[in-house]
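Progress narrative, work stream C.
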Amino acid sequence: MFLGQLAVIIVGSAKVGGLGHVWEVASQHGLISGIELDPDPFVRHTFWTLAFGGVFMMLSLYGVNQAQVQRYLSSRTEKAAVL
């Protein structure tokens, strides 16, 4: 998968004129951004909205997932469940 992604980046960049040109075009269209710390919940992809959403995503993966809950309940100790 990594090689496929790398191949897409290399071939795509070569077809449009190099990584510098890709970066320049993305920057001109406002697609390059840093870490946004705006606490407004209606702004997409800020640090706070991603952190808040990430908590619920991890909770759904590890807190209520059938396989994880079964592992927790079948272990004798908390240490055994972690292992």
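Work stream C, second folded protein:
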Amino acid sequence: MTIWVLVFCFELAAGLTCFVYRHQAAARINQPHKSRLLVEKTALFFTHLFPFATSFCLYNSNLTPQQKHVYLKENYPQCLFWMGIDGFEVYDYRMNPWLTVTGVGAFSFIFVIAWYCFYLGVHTAIVLQRVRHHLAPSTYHMHKAALISLVMQLVIPGVLIIVPLDLCMFVVITGAQDMQELATDSMFLVGSHSMCQCIVMILSNSTYRRIVKEKFWYIFK
């Protein structure tokens, strides 16, 4: 889980990097000089630090073998034999408050960065609209298509990540046993987000759509 979270959280840094790049590409159309980008660099620094901090907190969220045994005995005595399975983990925020720190901290940070990405996207669209008359139609449509593609690649697959993780956090915090199966099954959505991201990237790009359409007709004609 620690390694998975470490790798997974870098997606936030990658998304912010794309928004900053797209924003700067639009902002420098009328301002060729380089700005200091203090806010952008600070945000990028913390988003690249975020995976290490989150994985470190999650690593400290695990329970000792004694705590696991007590938790299972009190809540799921029929599952005590799982203690013998290699890699089996139990998390409980009451026994180890590190889990609360990890959950609240991670979701708060993601919320802030998500809104910052939203601001960059909106401001990029405003900048492109202002300089539209100074650009060739093909250049304007290229910037616009790239921005729309980026937003779709992050927003649509992001739903497949945020909703299942929020559901799992709700089950952990409230102990809603009737929703545990649904929370476990929702991990399928998390695993499929990369496939959805690729599909969105292809469908939101006219060149990619044309190539796929040509290959499709070539194969099935």
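Residues 137-174 form the longest helix (38 residues). No further action is required on this item.
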